[in-house]
Design brief:
Distance between the termini: 34 Å
Number of strands: 28
Radius of gyration: 21 Å
Strand content: 35-45%
Oligomer: single chain
Strand order of the largest sheet: 2-3-10-4-9-8
Shape: globular
Structural class: mainly beta
Length: 368
């Protein structure tokens, strides 16, 4: 039996990169670790319209282990957000996926299979992934695609379960962007989270199995508790855990209540965000750190997470710090972003339908 895989993740440009080797011979691919999507994809030759990347672009013709996926394959027919369709001339499955965020990020290409090799040379043949020939949305040039860690059939978690009998579990710790440390992603039996201070909240199943939904009950800002359940249209499973988003998105009406309480608790001079990406910004003190009130997220099952100050306000320009919570028009599709997940080892357990949280330091060490 193949050992459960693991991989290191490193912060860059507000995202977390995960390295996987694809093909035979293996080529290093750096993708955003994304619990909010299923399909893993990378830019592939020939690239008709692609963004620049520093690693070499994967060429399926140079891989002896690459194979096309037919239109009638289960891996093709179970795609949802990836909009599968058939290339009638070849009978090969194709996909086209779009991402939110306003930057026009998307990928279009062929669905194929190849050998995926993780750290410690743990390999899995015939893993389905997207070979993107037309892609956009990446600006840093560091990474080449997405690593899908959602709950749908084509995600890495589900493929390891379906084809290799590795438990449908993943755990990860995201180090602070200011840290030089790397976090680690574990799968299967290696992804069990345990230790003093462990807290667990139920995973809630909804119509789309891609998203890892949990129940947000509210927030506390200092001693002020804000009850989201009074405003929530969806009472259970109203927010999902998303490592592929930098920010946490709240419904417009609850966001207004959140901001009202926050601004009363913050002592500082408001500043405008010149780029217009953020709603609430402050002048950073010339000496010392910006003092933010304690913010606690309350989830179902009695889970209270004290959020990291480094993730609550980030310095976007010299001397300007901005809140990493943003409003959303959606009332039933809220997002708990990666900056709010700092300082926790998080385990997503699809076998037992729960999410575990274990406190860590900013460099992902478990306090003794």
């Amino acid at each position: 039996m193949t050992s459960p895989p693991e991989s290191y993740v490193t912060p860059t440009a507000g995202y977390y990169l995960m390295k996987i080797k694809v093909g035979g011979p293996p080529v290093e691919v750096y993708g955003i670790a994304d619990t909010g999507s299923d399909l893993t994809w990378t830019q592939c030759a020939p690239c008709y319209d692609c963004f620049k990347q520093k690693p070499p672009i994967f060429d399926p013709k140079k891989s002896a282990t690459y194979g096309a996926v037919s239109c009638k394959s289960e891996r093709c027919t179970t795609l949802r957000f990836e909009n599968p369709f058939c290339d009638n001339s070849t009978n090969n499955c194709r996909y086209e996926i779009y991402y939110g965020g306003g930057d026009g990020a998307h990928s279009y290409g062929d669905l194929g299979t190849d050998t995926f090799t993780f750290d410690r040379d743990v390999s899995f043949p015939k893993v389905a992934f997207g070979c993107g020939h037309d892609n956009s949305g990446e600006k840093s040039g560091i990474f080449s695609g997405i690593v899908g860690l959602g709950g749908g059939p084509v995600s890495i978690i589900r493929q390891l379960k379906t084809y290799y009998s590795i438990d449908a579990k993943v755990s990860y710790c995201l180090p602070s962007c200011d840290s030089n440390a790397a976090g680690k992603i574990n799968f299967g039996s290696n992804a069990v989270v345990s230790g003093p201070g462990l807290k667990s909240t139920p995973l809630v199943k909804r119509s789309y199995d891609t998203f890892h939904y949990v129940t947000l009950e509210g927030f506390s800002i200092g001693n002020k508790k804000l009850d989201y359940s009074k405003k929530a249209i969806v009472k259970e499973g109203n927010i999902f855990i998303d490592t592929g988003s930098k920010f946490t998105f709240l419904s417009n009406d609850f966001y207004s209540e959140f901001i009202s309480a926050l601004t009363k608790a913050v002592e500082g001079s408001r500043k405008a965000d010149q780029r217009g990406d953020f709603k609430v910004c402050y002048e950073k003190p010339k000496i010392g750190k910006f003092n933010t009130p304690a913010i606690t997220a309350h989830f179902g099952g009695g889970v209270d997470l004290v959020l990291s100050p480094e993730g609550t306000f980030v310095e976007v320009d010299e001397g300007v710090v901005c809140l990493t919570f943003l409003p959303s028009d959606s009332k039933d599709f809220l997002v708990f972003g990666n900056l709010q997940q700092l300082n926790y080892l998080i385990g997503i357990d699809l076998e037992n339908n729960k999410v575990d949280f274990l406190p860590t330091t900013s460099d992902c060490k478990i306090p003794s």
